[in-house]
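re: ur question from earlier - yeah i can do the single chain one, its not a big deal. heres the input i used so u can compare w yours
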Amino acid sequence: MSNAPEQALSPEEMILVGVQAQLAGRPGVLPAARGLSHFGEHSLGWLGLAALGAVLQPKRRKEYVTAGVGAFVAHAASVVIKRIVRRKRPDHPYITVGVGTPSKLSFPSSHATSSTAGAILLGRASGVPGGAVLAPAAVVPPMLASRMVLGVHYPTDVAAGAAIGAATAVAAIEGERLWTRRAARRTDKRDQKGSRS
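and the output i got, formated as tokens:
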């Protein structure tokens, strides 16, 4: 620390200090948070799971493609928003930064955005009853907490990221339904032309 007067903590910084005080010292928390960080970087983990699902469950390939596209679009949207908002990442002597980041911009959390979209869409793609609710309920809270434990995002960054991710997932599902309806209409038209000839 420098000899400069202490910088006051904002309410969000106080939350980060509290989260780190409660969680960061527990065994396994920091390695798990870093693992989640690497998994979620640029939505690559979600893209990998979507590709794996498409190979292992070919009958649900369309849903897995939607999951991969949705996670990537959510990530891309968050990057665009970050460049517009330009909020800097947490930077206070009381906040420990536990992982490197590809940019200095904070709002919204791209990890929260792509993880929320990816978890909703992969849960749906799996075909497990309630998967679109169960997967995000299991995966999203730890990802959001990990970003704060690592000191790279404010609470509003992760909350906004989760909201954008959920909205992107809904849009991806609607886009898939629209595509399916249009494809069915094209098939019907081809069948009608074929039956007339």
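Helices lie at 11-24, 29-40, 44-56, 61-85, 110-125, 131-149, 155-196. not sure if urs matches, ping me
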